[in-house]
From TrEMBL:
Protein name: Uncharacterized protein
Pro residues bias: start-end ranges: 107-117
Segments of this protein annotated with the region Disordered: 97-118
Amino acid sequence: MATNANDAEEQVLALLCGEAELWTWGGGTATCEFFFKRNGTGAIAAGANQYAWLTVDFTWSFDHQAARPVMADNGTWKFTIQMTFTTLLRLGPWRGDGARQDNLQNPPSPSEAPFPWAPLKSAAFRPKQYTLTLSRGRFIEPFHLSIKKPFPLFQSVPYCFAPNRYASKLAFDTSPYPPREEWVETGGLRSILDYHLDWDKKEFVRGGISKKDETWAEMLDLGWWLSPTTGFRHK
């Protein structure tokens, strides 16, 4: 179902932007989260157990030359953006020390990378293009899909569980997290990166649906409880 390009862009902005609830990959103590703002800025983070190994602000814009936002189907939008990591710490909600003010007044050049808040090579700060699909519906948390074992109904704890579901899903053609070759693996970071594989994460969700608001069909979803598929954590 096609729709006016301006209408589609406004619909995408309304669903994509906002800091009240972050886009997340899920994972409990793990953190792969980001947000977009209408003013063309945003922030992205990765971490676990209250330790963040990446907190980066970015700028973004629709890439109208590649493709204007379009409603591809009822409840699904496709669009292309350009996204650029910055060396500022203006927006990230994961940092609150005095270094932020110093950084605002005199932001370092990407050529000075890596940084304490972003162990990345300078190539990670170049503009990058992404094609995204934004969907509304009922979606299982990506983390839960990653740890799923075959036939959850017959698994023991902790693999016999009802997954978290969300009302919005955002899928990238390539992960918004830098590829492996753009990280500087200092200290114990290599083992952390090898375990979390942030650069493989392409789908994110927001708009959590509480268990009490799930339908009976979702609670008794045989497509989940009797599914033979295995999450990548067990392959």
